[in-house]
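Action item from last week, closing it out:
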Amino acid sequence: MKKLLVFIVGPTAIGKTSIAINLATHFNTEIISCDSRQFYKEMNIGTAKPSPNEIKKIKHHLIGNISVNKDYNISEFTNDADVILRSILNKKNIAILVGGSGLYIESLIFGIDQIPEVSLDLRNKLNDDLKNNGIKFLQDQLKKIDPEILDKIDTKNPRRVIRALEICLTSKKKYSQIIDKTKKIPKYDFLCIGLDSNRKKLYEAINKRVDNMLANGLVSEVKSLYKFRKNNALNTIGYKEIFEYIEGNDSLENCIEKIKVNSRRYAKRQLTWFRSKNYVKWFDKPNLDELINYIKINQQSA
């Protein structure tokens, strides 16, 4: 049997973590996180990391491995994940990867685009532009520089817009052209399993997850990170809304509702991204045996 990567993807709160752990247990292997929010060790409650008991049950990699003080880009992630993958596949036939960050997943499957180094001054300026002028200001700027990229990235995600602007302004080239030059040849034999459910149940799960985060101390976690609020890592759902409450710009009740709304919108964008990829095999409320059989059949024919 060939070595096989098994990616578990899908929208937030769909149940990727539990499925990944059950599969890793069955195949006696390890898990690599491809969730760009779970890399940061100080961000726990708001990123829905696996629980300490879940991490004890199965060895996880690239969860809480860096500080919010450190910039961790897709190139560094890919290099780190490739080293870990080689180590796992040296011992096992299967490695399980889980996450909802599409660009990080594709960087592992196909390799990364040649992206220039970006200055901290430029990043800080763009973050200030976002804070002072809003995301539409940045979207309009990107549209003038590289209109083609608007169909290739999530333009409602400020981190993605800022990243695209950084690359365009640093390289003096269109980000869309840099991406299009990359040959999409898989580096590994892989399966990509997409998890889905009907929208009503998904949105109920998202709302419940946010309520659980609040009950588990999300506000206290965000308060402890307030001094790092300008760091790129913290410009994300669940943190940026609570910062508004801490600064007295909105009520806690309104901020909680914004987290739920933004999380539901994020889930919709994740589904749109992954549904555009023909390599994803979708399962609606699969049972474990169904997924195990699917993996075994493809492992034998890989």
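Closing note: The domain at 120-180 is CATH 1.10.20.140 (Histone, subunit A).
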